[in-house]
Every structure is written in structure tokens, then in C-alpha cells.
Hints:
It is an enzyme of class 2 (transferase). One of its GO terms (molecular function) is rRNA (uridine-C5-)-methyltransferase activity. It is a single chain. The protein is an alpha/beta fold. It has 3 domains: 2-61, CATH 2.40.50.140; 83-114 and 256-423, Vaccinia Virus protein VP39 (Rossmann fold); 120-248, CATH 2.40.50.1070. It has 9 helices and 22 strands. It has helices at residues 82-100, 155-158, 161-170, 201-213, 260-272, 295-299, 311-324, 361-368, 382-394, and strands at residues 2-4, 7-8, 13-17, 23-27, 34-43, 46-56, 108-109, 120-128, 131-135, 177-185, 188-195, 218-223, 231-235, 241-243, 246-248, 283-287, 303-308, 328-332, 348-353, 374-379, 398-406, 416-423. The strands form 4 sheets. Strands 7-21-22-20-19-16-17-18 form an 8-stranded mixed sheet, sandwiched between helices. The chain has a 6-stranded mixed sheet with strand order 1-5-6-4-3-2, with no helix packed on it. The longest helix is centred in the N-terminal third of the chain and has 19 residues, at 82-100. The protein is flat, with a radius of gyration of 23 Å.
Amino acid sequence: MRVTIEAMGAAGDGIARDEAGRPLFIPFALPGEVVEAEPGPARGEGRVAALTAVETPSPDRVPPPCPHFGICGGCAVQHWADEPVAAWKAARVAEALSRAGFPGSPVEPAPPSPRNSRRRADFAIRRRAEGVAVGFHARGSSEPFDMAVCFVIDPRILALVEPLRALMGSLAALRRAGSAMVNLLDTGPDLWIRTDGPLTPGDRTKLAGFAAAHGIPRIAWSKEGTREAPEIAAQEGPAIVTLSGVPVSPAPGAFLQATPQGEAAIVAAVLAGLPARMAGRPRIIELHAGLGTLSFPLAGKGRVEAYEGAPEAATALQAAAGRAGARVKSVRRDLVRQPLLPAELNGAAALVLDPPFAGAAEQAAILARSTIPRVIYVSCNPAALSRDLQPFARAPGWKVERAVMVDQFLWSSQVEAVVTLARVI
Length: 425
């Protein structure tokens, strides 16, 4: 089928129309291109189609630098120039705000994260007849491809792939499938492995030797598919990450912002969203605080009440705040089951909401009808952002004062935003 690509979809696929006017989602095609494509399975109201030829290429098409592009499921738009990618992501944030009821809101792009800056990676591992495969999932598959290079993750993480392949192949605990998550901390790579069999005494000896040989302060282990907290299998030293000058001891696999540059952009946008003047010792409420990525910079502006549902994160945050003498009070609370009520918000100068991917629909509705003067929403999902901001658009007196697009997921379809909502006086 010969078609013209009309737009770029949310997943990074080019969108065209078939002869019946139904959408065709064509991976690796770009807006404005005339392409040949083979229609395939249904997706929503349309079909996925395989790109077979590009007859008229876009001037924005560029050679993808990675030889795994097209095989790896991580990158969707490595064949698209940087400027149109940034414009596309900013437009997605603007569209989300418009659907929420705030049309015409300008969106400022923050500087994108550079190549090889990602400090988190979760590798899939499979034992096969020809050896052990370590890498990201292949496109459209739950199986990994054997990874050799990557232009997204930090080189210090990439350097562990080959040694991990040898290590995992030697472990009796890896029967068929496992995984390895790496967080790059100030003290080195923090490794959490999961296997489908139990660790043997010999495996534990090998993990200790691996940690010593590769400068890994801590290796945690858990059984694949369980929800139990991981156990520490090897410890060479402390596992520390510094957040806005405060040392924090995270649990294995703890959530960090994907890149240091992305973290800095989000922190800057959140601080810029605070009121210009806050008298006395202002009270700032933070929801879904995690390890304190935003808590500690916010503490430079006022007294922070940091709510977090994960016990390990709440404990790490409180311990770090205590050691540093920061004006942060960590409160463990399941915000999905127990969102903050309007009376609990009285007297706060501002509230920062940084929910997980699913958003915070119930909490957002409560905030919209409360008396709090300012809400700063940190979003990693435009669909959830649009839904959660609709109550603010329906309630009287709210406006979008500022919106910043943050791109710390290079060449992917993921986009983040920091949106400041203020009451019109």
C-alpha cells in the first residue's frame, strides 16, 4: 500500500490512512513521507503496518547511530532529527493541556538529556542453547536481544553487560530467565539481580567476587516473579546517591530520575513554579516524594512535608533528612488509598505532586476544589496529565501559569512535563 504519513503517533509511529480512511500505524516512518507499507494486525480503530520502502524521505530523516535500532524496543525515533523530536514532544504536552481544558498554554522545552547519560537500566536475561543473552527487550517481544552497544545508557553501565553475561552464565540460580537492574550511584553501580532459581553457596561466592572485581558496592538478589524485598547477596561498601547535596542510601532498585540532567531540569522547573514570595516559614506539601529528589531542594524554600507510600523510600528519605538537618518531615502514607483531604492542605503555600505513571486522579480532584493557592504537577504520562488536570479546568479560578517539557528519555516516545497551576487572584 502506498500512503503519505500525516502525523506522528504517541508511540513514535507514523500515521497514515488506508483506503477506508482508517489509521495505519507505521513504525520508522516520518511525517510528510510517501512510503510503501504492508498492513498487518489491528490496533484500536486501525491497523499496524510494516514499512517496506520510503519513496519520498523526510528532510528530517537522519541515519540512526545504533546498529540495534529497529531490533531494540527502547528507541522509537532514532531516525528523526533532534529539533523535530523536541517539537513533537512539546506539542504532545500542549495537546494534553488542551484536552484537559487549558488550550493555548505555551510549553517551554528544557534542554534534553545528552547521549549516554541514562543512569538506570533493567536488562532481561535468558539462558539459551548458544549461551546467555543479556540486553533490553526486542521490539514487540518479551525476549531480549544480545546487546553489544548503546547510545543511551551511561558507558559505565554498558561496560557491565559483557561481564554480566559471563557471570549469569556461571550461576546455578539462572535456570532459564532472569533480569539485572543497575542504578548508577555516586559510589558505583548498584546491582539487583533476579533469577528463577535460588542462589547456591557457590553463587554467593561468585557474586562477592564480581562485586570486588567491578567496583560494585552492593549486589542484591531476589527470586524472579516474587514481591519480596531483595536480600543483600554481596556488600563491598556503602550505596549512596547525592540528591541536591544530601547523601541518601537508597534500597536496591530504588527509583531515580533517568538522567542527572533530567533531574536538574525537573528540579529547576519545580522551584521556578513556587510563589515568588513566601512569608515566614512557609509550609510546602510534597506528594509521592520518593527518596527526596524534590524534597531537599524544596527544603531550601520552606518546611517540607514529604508523603511517600513505599516504606523503603520513606525510611531512606527520613534518615537522610535527619543526618543533613534538612527541613523535611517524611510521612509514610498510601496516597492511592488515602489521598490528602482539603482540611489537611490548609495553610500550605504550595503543593508538589509527582505521581507514578498512572497519575493521581482522586488526589487531583481533591486539590482542585481545595483552597491551596498553587499546585505544581510533575508528569511522566501525558494521558494521565490531561485527565488529572480536568478538575482544575472545571473549578473556578485555576490557570496554567507555566508548563515545561522535559525530555530525559532520548529517542523514545516518553515525555515528561512540569505544570504550575495557580489560582487567579
